[in-house]
Design goal:
It is a single chain. By secondary structure, the chain is an alpha/beta fold. Helix content is about 45%, strand content about 15%. An eight-stranded mixed β-sheet has the order 3-2-1-4-5-6-7-8, with helices on both faces. The N terminus is likely disordered.
Length: about 300
């Protein structure tokens, strides 16, 4: 019977106790695979669910803040002959995250595929003060997505796939940062705590209008995605170190410029086209060892 190593301080506890057979009910739960996509009642997330329903051998969950909208999305996909499921999940609500993680651990013994898609962006013409844009954008795109990863990574099953929807805007923003910031974001020894501190520093500096003089560019969305890509790389390194035999692959990716409520009607890609790279990463075959901790766009690893 397969066992995992004893728990470490990593926050990635074993699902089984070494030397003791796994309970039959747990084995039965783990036999059913499950994919979870955040913010998936519309846009790219909805298209990812659609593709996974067609290609993933297991249950696929639409999640959304609003139960009504989530259930409408499910009905829409059911009208196409697909069979998604629904669970309420608001990534800006820590209790919602904890409740959802407990549900998937209890029902399935964990999660096989997690796609962190939920995100926001202010329109270019939005007159909301930049400091407010920075706080709101980083709250969802970085801090709340980090909360998702904190609570869901420990229940990702062996062979699992984690995909964080980032953006090449994060790479372009990185190149606009000061040399000192670029060095830290690209460093392989940057810690999660250091990264969190840098993201909070950006938010705090915008409130004093001091972000530019401290080496930050004028883009809240770009900084949030720089942070998410860097966080993905940190967590991938941690998984490799602390769960080396579990074969979990975690990657940030850019879906491209997609016609959604967020990106607008002029974007060249349809949501289904935007879903291609995230779904490719979500369905990397068993035994694959790469990509892992890499920024991926158009199914190709990108420089960072």
């Amino acid at each position: 019977m397969r066992t995992l190593a004893a728990p470490s301080a990593s926050g990635f506890p074993p699902l089984f106790i070494p030397g003791r057979p796994a309970p039959q009910d747990l084995l039965e739960k783990m036999a059913t695979k499950v994919a979870v996509v955040t913010g998936s009642n519309k846009g790219i997330g909805f298209a990812i669910v659609r593709a996974l329903c067609k290609q993933f051998q297991g249950d696929v969950y639409v999640t959304a803040r609003d139960v009504g909208r989530g259930q409408e999305a499910v009905k829409s996909l059911e009208s196409e002959g697909l069979k998604p499921m629904f669970h309420q999940l608001d990534i800006n609500d820590l209790n919602s995250i904890i409740t959802a993680a407990a549900y998937f651990k209890e029902k399935y013994g964990g999660v096989d595929v997690l796609v962190n898609n939920a995100g926001i962006a202010f329109k270019v013409a939005d007159t909301t003060p930049f400091a407010v844009q920075a706080e709101v954008t980083l709250k969802t795109n970085f801090f709340s997505t980090r909360d998702m990863l904190t609570h869901f990574l420990p229940i990702i099953k062996a062979g699992g796939r984690v995909v964080n929807i980032s953006s090449m805007a994060g790479f372009r923003t990185l190149n606009q940062c000061s040399a000192a910031l670029q060095q830290r974001f690209r460093s392989e020894d940057i810690t999660e705590d250091e990264l969190v501190g840098l993201m909070q520093q950006f938010v705090d500096k915008t409130k004093k209008d001091e972000h530019k003089q401290d080496g930050w560019p004028e883009t809240a969305y770009g900084v949030s995605k720089t942070g998410l890509t860097t966080l993905s790389m940190i967590l991938a390194r941690r998984l490799s170190k602390e769960r080396p035999n579990d074969g979990i692959l975690l990657n940030p990716c850019c879906p491209g410029w997609v016609r959604t409520d967020m990106a607008g009607p002029k974007a060249p890609k349809s949501p289904d086209e935007g879903a291609i790279t995230p779904v490719y990463l979500a369905l990397l075959p068993p035994g694959a060892t790469e990509p892992h901790g890499k920024l991926v766009s158009e199914k190709q690893v990108q420089a960072w």
